[in-house]
Structures are given as structure tokens and as C-alpha cells.
Amino acid sequence: MMDRVKGCVTEKCAAHKKKTTYKESDDYCSKCGDKLSYVCKKCYTPLEDTSEKYCVRCLAVRQDRNDNVVKVVGSIGGALLTASTVVLTKGKDIAKIISKLK
Ligand SMILES: [Zn+2]
Ligand SMILES: [Zn+2]
To answer: Could you read off the pLDDT of 8-66 as tens digits, one per residue?
Structure first.
């Protein structure tokens, strides 16, 4: 099960102002009683694609980071390409690999 969150999208509601998140099993806001919507786990934006737990903007930011890692790996050269999947899953280790190559 994806770890999605719901939130109150009624702007004047205290839960909305405080960006209170609710569990997926909750259907109504405990403050104002309005129906809850899926919201981005990070920025509380109501989600259009409810199969994701982040909004398109937050997903794009995450995607950008992955792209940067790919670029760095590509600039090192083909010899390391087989290691790139490992690097991608363990992004922190890439700095170590680069410093070894120098
Ligand atoms: Zn509410
Ligand atoms: Zn977001």
C-alpha cells in the first residue's frame, strides 16, 4: 500500500491552514467536516493523480535530482555504466566513486 496522505482543502479550515494530514482511511475533516482529498505529502497541494503521493511539482524536483545523477555518471565514462544502477539507488555513494577516479 502506498503511503499517501489526505488533507482538508477547505481554505478557511484550521486543518488546512495548519496543513494537517489525515490517514487514507479518513474521509472527512475532523475540524470542519468537509470531505478530505489526497494531498501532496510534501507541500499539501491537492493531487490530481491520486496514484502518486506527491504533486507533479514535487515529483519533478525528485526527477531532476535523478537526472543530475545520470549526467554525472555519464560524464565519468562507459566503464562505470554497469555501476550506474547501484549508484542510482545509492546516490550518496556517487561522491565516493568520483573521488576514487581522480
Ligand atoms: Zn477542514
Ligand atoms: Zn508537492
So the answer is: 999 999 999 999 999 999 999 999 999 999 999 999 999 988 888 999 999 899 888 87
Both 2 and 50 in one domain: the answer is yes
Residues 6 and 43 in one domain: yes
Total number of residues shown for the chain: 102
Q: N- to C-terminal Cα distance for the chain?
A: 43
**Contact assessment for residue 44 and residue 36, using Cβ atoms and an 8 Å cutoff:** no
- What is the number of domains present in the chain? 2
For residue 19, which ligand has an atom nearest its CA? 1
How far is the centre of ligand 1, averaged over its atoms, from the C-alpha of 2 (Å)? 23
- Record the pTM: 0.61
Same domain for 38 and 76, yes or no, is no
Domain with 49, as residue range(s), is 1-54
